[in-house]
Amino acid sequence: MVQDSMKLSMNFDLEESSSRLPKHQNVDICIACGNCLAGCPYNAKNSTDKNYLASAIQAGCIVKTECEVQYVVKNPYETGHEGGVGGKRRWLVFLNEIDCIKADFVILSAGVLGTTAILFKSQMRGLKLSESLGSGFSCNGNTVAYLAGSSGPLHAYGLDKKQLSKTPIQARPGPSISSSYTSSLGFTIQSAVLPTAYPYMLFKGIVTYGWPTGYWFFDGVIDKLKHLIGSKSSQAMVLAAMGHDKSDGKIILDKETDKICFSPPHDPLLVRKIEAFQKITKKLGGILFMSNYRSTSVHLLGGCNASSDFSDGVCNPNGQIFDAEAPGLVHQGLYVCDASLIPCSVGVNPSLTIAAAAEHVSKHLVKDTLSYKSKNCIDFASKVVDQNPYTEIHNNLKSREKSYVFVKEIMRGYVGGMPCTAFLRIRINLQNENSCDDRNSVMRKSCSTLKGKVGGYVVLRAIEKDKLHVIDGEIDMFEVDYKTPYTQYMHYRLLLATASGPRYIFEGKKIMNPYLFALYSWRETTTLYVTFKKLDGNFTGKAGLNLKGELRISTIELLKSIVSLEGNRKGRFIYLFSLNLLRTYILQIPQESHKKYTLTDSYNNSYPASTFYEIKTEDGYTISCRQWNCSQSGWKFKEEKHPVLLLNGHSTESFCLPTEPNDLIRTLLAEGHEIWLLQPRVHVSNPSNNFTIEDIGRYDIPAVMGKICEFHGPSMKVHVVAHCVGGLSIHIALMGGHISATQIASLCCTNSSMFFKLTTLATVKMWLPLVPSTCRCQWLCWARTKSCFC
């Protein structure tokens, strides 16, 4: 055994004058109390909050506490996206399933287990990483033991204020590491001083370290009680051995629990270290408590090993993370800068090795930042990070957290015929809903909506075997379309990411119609109509996969959602939710008015012009028709296409809606078709007369076909699109021989015209008198049903 003394204190030369150092770095003189491990109570410890963090804060760094980074994903909207979480930053750093910070540069320094866990969770959301992630895990050859009951003056337990005043400086414990020696076998053993804040260590030894073999139980209890009351406070000590191991440990992430698991590396000198502990115990006296576990470590290393090749490591020597999709390249702006870079054990305390690696990574990071800034014309380097509003001011953060309500929702069903389950966590923002006055909210034309963000995941095993995680989700629980003011929608829009790389758009709506006094309210509020699309590699919105389906929330899951509501304003949320349901289903109050619609767009894009013709039929009755010509509408085509004849239903008017940018007329004109719209003898513009549907097929349709032949010749064929009774009329014209089938290029009819035997209900409808309606009624009917012919 080599027992030569070693000087453990270290001095650093200052590269800058003391006048330029941050004021927060000023520390007091160490008084050797021995409480270093728990944080110095006398401000004599030069910890990171007094050096690195203090310098960073003075340089403009914002430090957010009481949070934990969960994962990092590439920004899907890097090129800019209205309303998305991204903006133009390269990375999204998520603090939970919903909140994120946008940044161009991300440096992961969460320690071996923390950094590796972040990267594993990021990999589950599509970040391509090396397969060696989690490999090369080392415990730096650590083994920890606990020596108790020694009769020697160990001075290895911290002093409180009362003890400190009575103990001379020479008899005080000193810093956390008070003694050390190195064995010729290749390991070092150091003693550690237990701080006064760790009295539970004495009882923790019962479970973690166990009782030594042959030690009487009651004697052990008495010894530990003496330690607790402080009568033997100087006779206990922690021994830590460190050296080299095989660095073949493995870190993995349990996907079900999202917890880190690991298998420790092989330590060939473990037996030798235990023998050394036993020799120390024999020399100092006392009882040795060894860990029940094979190895206990305080110096974890590896997991994101630095290497020159992505097949052997996760990062390059500069700390940049390799991109597995492009061997040899890295994820720009994503760094690791902590002990997880170290690919093997270093033999002694690795703090200086880690600091040296961090300095090396930092120098390359500065160069990379300056280069990126110059290429993208960024004014100042600090602008490579965007903060969400909730991170700016602590008071605002607390007030906003109080305005949130969290809802858990589980829906199951089928998408594209395949089983699908959505596990969602919704955060509803109630901060800006005070504009809705409670006294008048029921009868107001519009009320506060319930909007929020969505996190969670979707399971669709037929498409992806792993979970589809939500990386950007939005919800509007009561969305209103001014085109349908009586109908409300629950609109979900989710951007999903998977471990395999593809991203998907999951969009769903719950449609709540005020029909039959809430008869269908339960089905409508619990059924989500889903559209599931796969995005291309550039996230431009082009879908390579487009599936539709329905998801439902069961009664039990709905009750669970209500019970599991979180937040200080649960009552307010339930009130607003119930109020909107009352307005929709019972009171049927429109949320928006069509008067809010402006005709600016309609004037800028006027409706195609048409020509009106009056035609005299064979039986002497005058009917009319309208013609839309491609040349009049501004469309030019090289070859002439067959005209299209439109036939309305029974006593139906055709009209265009100013709120709709497209309709059947515009679509057919854009494809180069000339359009004819028949207004037969049953049209509302004609005076009352006695007629039958057979008269339309016998006289009106042949007359308009003759008019079309006047323009194009008798050999021209016509496409016919017929609705309801119009389809029945064209069948009468064809089967009765009133027009020739050779004149028809194609025939498109609704199903009602294909049933030649009328049902009882259809017969009753035929006998009902026509009811005149005003434009206001037509608008109301359209607003409620949103249906028209062309």
Automatic annotation (TrEMBL):
Its cofactor is FAD. Pathway: Steroid metabolism; cholesterol degradation. GO terms for molecular function: cholesterol oxidase activity; flavin adenine dinucleotide binding; steroid Delta-isomerase activity. Residues 20-50 form the 4Fe-4S ferredoxin-type domain. This is Cholesterol oxidase. GO terms for biological process: cholesterol metabolic process. InterPro entries: 4Fe4S_Fe-S-bd, 4Fe4S_Fe_S_CS, AB_hydrolase_fold, Cholesterol_Oxidase, FAD/NAD-bd_sf, GMC_OxRdtase_N, GMC_OxRtase_C. Its EC number is 1.1.3.6, 5.3.3.1. The keyword Zinc does not apply. Keywords: Cholesterol metabolism, FAD, Flavoprotein, Isomerase, Lipid metabolism, Oxidoreductase, Steroid metabolism, Sterol metabolism. It comes from Durio zibethinus. The keyword Ion transport does not apply.
